[in-house]
């Protein structure tokens, strides 16, 4: 009994730690220019690192009080360890002691990670403006491998069916694949799952299992799960849901291959599992990393830029991998970004111009609009309507029946063949009720369909579940006015006896088809949930000289490949496609565009690819008006803190004219200039110290933006552009100044040869402070047609420098 109590006490204190070691990882040993992928060198280094970790842990903790979960060797040199005794936890938390140990650089406690969860290729102009230059859709992205860090994949989905044998020995468009990943088999994931489209698949769950969050009855112990096919899904896959064809889906780069690294589950995930997934993906040789995940909050420490995941992604960039990450779904609150560093492309989400509008025609000729991806009622017949409370047993509680979640209270003879009026109550907001259950209820009782009205106490916010595809006629009247008009008509046509019981149902209506898309041409609009800037430096939410988000892409109501067995959303269980929203949907759009640029320009480094996407992005909608952003209850003109450099434009991104290039050493200089970060903090995080000659400001990093979060008096900033066009070009520079700031740039006109560079000098001078950011832009217009757009974002703190 005593030993059992002691064991329980030790489990209470069990924790997972990520420990970074002083010795080099494989990538850190290579110079920026000299990274090579010699497979034998990688294997030898990996085995050596793993042995060193094992020896160190055994000497420090003793063999019975810990389990090593992972050895990180490729990007970072470190390990994740699950310690299971109080003494071992205290030892790991003794940071000062460990940092004084010769071998240890830093110790981080593990933290939660969460998922930041068709028409879009046409909307982005890809079929006509991009795919033809690659020989068509099937070869667009050929030779590129996109590594997806997410919840897994369904290998049986037609979006991921084999298109050809994966070629590792043949060059395509000047690029030869270097991918060496493996396929891990397991539940629902047979050896045949890697079929040429899926070229690698692994899963990482050791921290999730150690924490007790992995549920074997719910979470597959394999790479199998739900997924999003927007990055590299096959071209022309029919989107059939509940027997209706909603069109044909395609990824942005249909010819690209997919390597899956599952590190997220129904409950979320852990950073140590994600770091292991990233480490493996880069070791395997992916070209693009797509992360529709992020931390649940700003990580602790002197700077968000120094947390373990950001460091892992920094070294991925050094290895030549383009890193794309979701911005987060914390909008419209400011500084809600969960992807922080300048080496990461942080993607915001927008609404596209496709809408699904339902409508109901009343017997009095009124036509009310609402939502509902449902079939119409039969023919042009008008069906009788009945409120749920009027066709239920008298002893049933009104509050229980009005939400139509249970068929038992309904009287079969009264409900059959009628349109049942249900009420959207607060139960729906807290997931204790769902639109799917409404559809199931009306189907089981033999009703003709349903009409969902809004409880006036809820207000006019959009109802949840309006994008769920249903097999029975229905409509959600998701505004108070339409709901009120329906009730007025119903009450005027319903006759009651002296007790108030309905005895005659004369109100009539028919529901029209809600599955046909309408294209408004008004998009893009920044989605309300999309996380906003300004970027933050630390958990105190001090702002940073980094523009976040980076760019914006479609992310609302996206038809995405879905696993019928997925437990992620019961409302769409059993379907192959689902309408999904979130910055997790916007992210693979940008990953797909990056794959196309990589295919066309295989020698470009990650910063050049992202620069091309940023400087060619759109800041106007389809009509030429400024992009708008959804706020809490209104639209307002969007700013770079809503959409970054703008909405991605794939056609122009393939030929940007000029690019801004940053390298690993530049990112180190950036870190050394971050306020509140000292040299030792940088050394512990990165493994190298600050250079003797260091930059004064973070704003000196050579990015395609100029962001200053604290302008005092005057600041000088330099940018270097590289001409990646085929010909020499002459550029003219124009400036639109941010409010409160005078901006001078020199030279204002310059000619630049192919592959040459040009230095641009900025002088930003504070004019007045209005306690808010000002937004401006630098436009470089070339005589060969290139237009390079550079956002300028400044917060004036003081007119006088020290």
From TrEMBL:
InterPro entries: Peptidase_S8/S53_dom, Peptidase_S8/S53_dom_sf, Peptidase_S8_Asp-AS, Peptidase_S8_Ser-AS, Peptidase_S8_subtilisin-rel, Peptidases_S8_3, S8pro/Inhibitor_I9, SBT. Residues 700-794 form the Subtilisin-like protease fibronectin type-III domain. Residues 46-92 form the Inhibitor I9 domain. It is found in: Secreted. Its main location: secreted. GO terms for molecular function: serine-type endopeptidase activity. It comes from the Eukaryota. Keywords: Glycoprotein, Hydrolase, Protease, Serine protease, Signal. The active site is at 150 (charge relay system), 235 (charge relay system), 584 (charge relay system). Signal peptide: none annotated. GO terms for cellular component: extracellular region. GO terms for biological process: proteolysis. CDD domains: PA_subtilisin_like, Peptidases_S8_3. The keyword Nucleotide-binding does not apply. Residues 141-646 form the Peptidase S8/S53 domain. Gene3D superfamilies: 2.60.40.2310, 3.50.30.30, Peptidase S8/S53 domain (3.40.50.200). Belongs to the peptidase S8 family. This is Uncharacterized protein.
């Amino acid at each position: 009994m005593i030993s059992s109590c002691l064991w329980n006490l030790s489990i209470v204190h069990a924790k997972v730690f990520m420990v970074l070691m002083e010795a080099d990882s494989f990538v850190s040993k290579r110079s920026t220019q000299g990274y090579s992928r010699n497979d034998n060198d990688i294997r030898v280094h990996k085995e050596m690192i793993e042995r060193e970790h094992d020896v160190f842990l055994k000497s420090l903790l003793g063999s019975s009080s810990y389990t090593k979960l992972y050895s990180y060797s490729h990007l970072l040199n470190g390990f994740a360890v699950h310690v299971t005794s109080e003494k071992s936890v205290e030892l790991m938390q003794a940071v000062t002691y460990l940092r004084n140990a010769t071998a240890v650089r830093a110790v981080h406690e593990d933290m939660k990670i969460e998922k930041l969860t068709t028409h879009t290729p046409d909307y982005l102009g890809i079929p006509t403006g991009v795919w033809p230059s690659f020989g068509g859709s099937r070869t667009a992205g050929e030779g590129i491998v996109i590594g997806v860090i997410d919840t897994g994949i369904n290998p049986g989905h037609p979006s991921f069916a084999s298109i050809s044998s994966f070629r590792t020995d043949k060059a395509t468009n000047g690029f030869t694949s270097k991918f060496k990943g493996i396929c891990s088999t397991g539940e629902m994931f047979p050896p045949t799952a890697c079929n040429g489209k899926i070229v690698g698949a692994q899963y990482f769950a050791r921290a999730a299992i150690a924490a007790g969050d992995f549920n074997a009855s719910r979470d597959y112990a394999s790479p199998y799960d739900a997924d999003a096919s927007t990055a590299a899904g096959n071209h022309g896959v029919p989107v059939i849901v509940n027997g209706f064809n909603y069109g044909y889906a395609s990824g942005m780069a249909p010819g690209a291959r997919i390597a899956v690294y599952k590190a997220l589950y129904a409950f979320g995930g852990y950073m140590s599992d994600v770091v292991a997934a990233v480490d493996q993906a880069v070791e395997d040789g992916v070209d693009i990393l797509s992360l529709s995940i992020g931390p649940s909050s700003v990580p602790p420490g002197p700077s968000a830029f120094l947390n373990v995941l950001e460091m892992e992604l920094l070294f991925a960039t050094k290895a030549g991998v383009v890193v794309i990450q979701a911005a987060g779904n914390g909008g419209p609150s400011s500084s809600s970004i969960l992807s922080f560093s300048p080496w990461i492309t942080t993607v915001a989400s927008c609404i596209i111009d496709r809408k699904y509008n339902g409508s109901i025609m009343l017997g009095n000729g009124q036509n009310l609009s609402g939502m509902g991806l449902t079939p119409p009622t039969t023919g042009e017949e008008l069906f009788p309507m009945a409120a749920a409370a009027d066709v239920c047993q008298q002893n049933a509680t009104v509050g229980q029946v009005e939400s139509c979640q249970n068929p038992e209270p309904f009287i079969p003879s009264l409900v059959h063949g009628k349109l049942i009026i249900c009420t959207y109550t607060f139960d729906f907001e807290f997931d204790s009720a769902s639109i799917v259950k409404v559809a199931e209820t009306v189907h089981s009782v033999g009703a003709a369909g349903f009409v969902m009205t809004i409880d006036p106490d809820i207000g006019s916010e959009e109802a949840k579940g309006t994008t769920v595809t249903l097999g029975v006629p229905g409509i959600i009247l998701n505004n108070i006015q339409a709901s009120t008009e329906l009730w007025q008509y119903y009450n005027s046509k319903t006759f009651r006896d002296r007790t108030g019981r309905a005895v005659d149902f004369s109100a009539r209506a028919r529901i029209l088809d809600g599955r046909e898309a309408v294209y408004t041409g008004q998009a893009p609009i920044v989605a309300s949930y999309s996380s906003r800037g300004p970027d933050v430096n630390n958990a105190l939410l001090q702002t940073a000289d980094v523009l976040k988000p980076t760019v914006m892409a479609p992310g609302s109501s996206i038809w995405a490949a879905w696993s019928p067995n997925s437990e992620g959303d019961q409302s769409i269980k059993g379907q192959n496609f689902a309408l999904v929203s979130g910055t997790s949907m916007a992210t693979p759009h940008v990953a797909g565009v990056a794959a196309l640029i990589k295919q066309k320009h295989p020698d470009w480094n990650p910063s050049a690819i992202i620069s091309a996407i940023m400087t060619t992005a759109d800041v106007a909608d389809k009509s030429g008006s400024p992009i708008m952003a959804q706020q809490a209850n209104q639209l307002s003109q969007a700013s770079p803190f809503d959409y970054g450099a703008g909405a991605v434009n794939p056609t122009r991104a393939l030929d940007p004219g000029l690019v801004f290039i940053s390298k690993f050493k530049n990112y180190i200089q950036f870190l050394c200039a971050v306020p509140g970060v000292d040299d030792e903090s940088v050394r512990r995080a990165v493994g190298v110290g600050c250079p003797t000659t260091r930059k004064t400001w973070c704003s000196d990093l050579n990015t395609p933006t100029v962001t200053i979060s604290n302008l005092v008096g005057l600041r000088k900033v330099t940018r270097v552009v590289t001409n990646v066009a085929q010909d020499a070009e002459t550029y003219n520079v124009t400036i639109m100044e941010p409010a409160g700031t005078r901006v001078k740039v020199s030279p204002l006109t310059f000619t630049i040869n192919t592959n040459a560079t040009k230095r641009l000098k900025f002088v930003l001078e504070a004019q007045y402070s209005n306690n808010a950011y000002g937004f401006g832009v630098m436009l470089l217009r070339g005589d060969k047609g290139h237009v390079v757009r550079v956002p300028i974002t400044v917060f004036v703190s003081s007119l006088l420098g020290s």
